[in-house]
Amino acid sequence: MIEISIKGHPKRVSKAKVKKATLFFADKIMYPRLHETLIVDVIFSRKNLEADEWANCIAYPEDSQRPKVFDINVDPGLSEKKTLIIIAHEMNHVRQLAKAQLYEYERKKLCRWKDDFIDIDKVWYWFLPWEIESYGIEHGLHHLFEMSIANDPKKREVAAKIFARK
Ligand SMILES: [Zn+2]
After folding, report:
1. pLDDT for 123-157, tens place per residue?
2. Hey, what CATH topology would domain 3-161 get?
3. pTM score, two decimals?
4. Ligand 1 centroid to 153 CA: how many Å?
5. Three-class SS state of 51
6. DSSP code of 54?
7. Cα(32)–Cα(80) distance, rounded to whole angstroms?
8. How much distance in Å is there from the Cα of 93 to the middle of ligand 1?
9. How far is the CA of 56 from the centre of ligand 1 (A)?
10. What residue segments make up the domains of the chain, in order of their start?
11. Following DSSP, what letter does each residue of 99-154 receive, concatenated?
12. What is the pLDDT of residue 61?
């Protein structure tokens, strides 16, 4: 099982729910063989965020081709829904980095995405392929998580069967 620690103090969501959601996202997008090797800290603090960021994901060591240790930094003031959606988004970046689909060169200006090299100064943020993938999956993962804890057992049953692993 992936090792997840929740640090800091989110203002509008319980740490228990954050942990449950983070585990759920890991299980839905990564095979156990991958996620059971990972250590993820979800840190509610603006300390390691840029002024225009609500969240980010940092792999350690930063130059590792297949990192196993990650910090997900999250603004502690976000709504519960926004917090969970943003963690789904960042967990997808964890998958991309852990599977070496995405590798950020130290200068951070050049990234390898699968077999392509992308100069991040030349591609608009919203059109970066790893962002398109993370924005594309975040709402579905959040919706699936809410289904998995719904009162309606039919919703829970459907949620248990759906995976987005690859
Ligand atoms: Zn992103």
Report:
1. 999 999 999 999 999 999 999 999 999 999 999 99
2. Collagenase (Catalytic Domain) (3.40.390)
3. 0.96
4. 33
5. coil
6. S
7. 27
8. 7
9. 7
10. 3-161
11. TTSEEE-TTSSEEEETTEEEETTTS-GGG-HHHHHHHHHHHHHHHHHHHHT-S-HH
12. 86
